[in-house]
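Notes, Module 5: Reading structure tokens.

Key idea: the token line is not a picture. It is a compressed description, and you learn to read it the same way you learned to read a sequence, by spotting repeated patterns. We will look at two proteins. The first is printed below with its tokens.
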Amino acid sequence: MTCDRLVCANCAGPVSEGRCPVCRAHRERVHRESPLGGLSPATLFTLVLALLAVAFLAQRVAVA
């Protein structure tokens, strides 16, 4: 999970900006709990494509 689209209930600002102590605390908690929290969607998409390519190649080698 990323905090890009989360809105703080305390200050009504984006959590990613960390305007108040509540925002900053939640942002730190999200990044600490999620090992992939710091990765962008583009990076995750690239990793999935690479995994699919490896799986496809492994299948082709196993059949041959």
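Here is the second protein, with the sequence above and the tokens below, as before.
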Amino acid sequence: MTEQKNILLFANQASQELAGRVAVELAIPLTQMVMKRFADGEVYHAFPCDISGRDIIIIAATPDDAAHQELVDLISGCRYWNSGSVNVVIPYLGYSTMERARPESGEIPKGITRTRQIFRSRPDYVAFVDLHSEAVSHAHAGEIRTRHVWTESLAARKIKKMGLSDYVLVSPDYGFSKRVARLAGLLDCPHTAANKDRYDVDRTIVGQMSSAVRGKTAIICDDMIRTGGSMLQTVDRCYEAGAVEVMILATHLVLAGDARVRFRARGIDRIIGTDTFPGRHSDDLLDIFSVAPLIARELIHYLRIENFFEAAE
């Protein structure tokens, strides 16, 4: 068993809030790095205590370049100062939709190349939450243990608490339909999928929707909402197919640009999602549930932490 006193929990700046919730679930403190910013913009990091031989947990979403680099620096620093183990949880992986390059395109598949940078800093264990593509988790030489943590159980619990009586889950495309089917199995409800084609890097067209949504509340499910373009097209197709109401469920709420305004304009008044993407809180549009219990449960299982609390069950 790993003793709790031997564990140190850190986070990059992007994931301080979520890491604080995980700390509560694990009944251990969130340890703060010593940080300074020099006049030229360079960032100073120092561990506030001796980490030699300690089991380190790092919670770090990578929504931008600075967050990604900070994670790499933290892992590298742990290795430099001889920590016992380095265990990383990445709630949201930036560039995760860029897991492949088109032939002869010259594109850099940053989902793979960025994840390799993380792996090459030599963590012992990396867990990802609701990856867009599992391909990125295999971008190493086999010496790192990786885990893909799914949020279906939390999402099912959230939907059950809403007390809906006649609803159908909708996948925005056939590629995501297996995951929606798993969630539908937990909820014992019907599910269907839209017909979506991608014709450019950030452009898709949703062609048609099954009549399974007729007379029902449609809950469109996806792993993330970035600009909301294809999701909004799916909203339109659901209403055209006879849905009486449409709700949105997505794990990672990026909501770039004017996405919120566009959803409002389509009559969407509830987007259900998690706190994996930094800065997302419940408000008059967003209904947020935390993945902290799920992350804590995963860490308890992997690190075999003793005396954990019921909140992590």
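Summary for the second protein:
- The longest strand covers residues 217-225.
- Confidence is low (pLDDT under 50) at residues 198-202, 307-313.
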